Input
Amino acid sequence: MSICIFPGTFNPIHNAHLKMAEFALEYYGFEKIIFIPAYIPPHKEISSNLAKHRYKMVEIATSKNPRFEVSDVEYNSNSPSYSLITVKKIIEKYNLQTKLNFIIGTDAFTKLESWYKIDELKDLVHFIVFPRRGDKPDYTYFKNKGYDFETAPMEYIDISSTEIRKENKNRETTRDVEVYIKEHGLYIN
Output
């Protein structure tokens, strides 16, 4: 089975996340994209109280595409969401014999060297790097370090979860997620 995972904080999930996943489905021909909301992201300060809301918003946002799936592998761990552990669980669950495809933005890609047991992780995954405005990774450095990756030729979409939270730009999410945010009083300044 040709699958790709899309791990993230999704605080909240927004239209650019969905466009990236749709692009990956079509451009790379994946059978499915598995969204994996982090329970406790190890590189971000975020309240664990938001975990259930972030997970629910991903479920809501992805529900209209039958080729999108949401995994609770990190949500149910109740511990920091290390990609290596997640990847091993997904590989085992789907009995994969090849590297696991992994969607990542350049902002996270440039910080890979700080990730938990990255030398072990990089042997298990093929990163699909989606550029973000202003990020200019030294791709040669990552190639020389043995990372297996390619950059997705998708035009950058200027949407930020941070801006949605700070400026209440809920229009950058799906209508159903916008309603959920309002119903639960999330991201009120």
About this structure: Residues 36 and 72 are 7 Å apart (CA to CA). The helical segments are 15-28, 51-62, 83-94, 106-109, 118-121, 139-144, 161-167, 175-183. Residues 3-158 form a domain with the Rossmann fold fold (CATH 3.40.50.620). The radius of gyration is 16 Å.
